[in-house]
Write a structure and sequence with these properties.
0% strand, 6 helices, mainly alpha, globular
Length: 127
């Protein structure tokens, strides 16, 4: 999965993406889905599935990092770089220590990002 661009993350699932704003919304939703699964498999002590879902979540954060536009985004892009990087660090720690509280933090951050994204892009997402 690593190295694929954001569009390919969803194209493989035959999802039509109408706009860049919709794609980012879908990526945040993917983070929520995959991190919830990672937490579930940490609790179930299923190492293989835990690693799979942590890696999927990390892949999305990596893709979000790769799509940041520092020219247009300025300070927001710099802030998001730090935020996304920290979430990847938390996921790595959760993977090593099986600490679901770190996954909960990632879920809460992703919920906040998704809500803010929807608010900022409500006109484009409504199309």
């Amino acid at each position: 999965m690593r190295g694929n661009n954001a569009y390919n993350l969803y194209q493989q699932n035959s999802v039509s993406v109408e706009s860049p704003a919709k794609l980012i919304e879908m990526l945040y939703e993917g983070i929520l889905r995959f991190s919830a699964q990672a937490k579930r498999y940490i609790e179930a002590e299923d190492i293989e599935k835990k690693i799979y879902y942590i890696n999927r979540t990390t892949d999305i954060f990596t893709e979000l990092l790769n799509t940041l536009d520092y020219d247009k985004g300025g300070d927001v892009a710099v802030y998001l770089t730090g935020l996304y990087t920290h979430q990847i660090k938390l996921l790595t720690q959760a993977n090593v220590t099986n600490d679901t509280t770190k996954v909960d933090t990632v879920i809460n951050v992703a919920k906040g990002l998704l809500e803010a994204w929807r608010e900022i892009n409500q006109d484009e997402l409504a199309r």
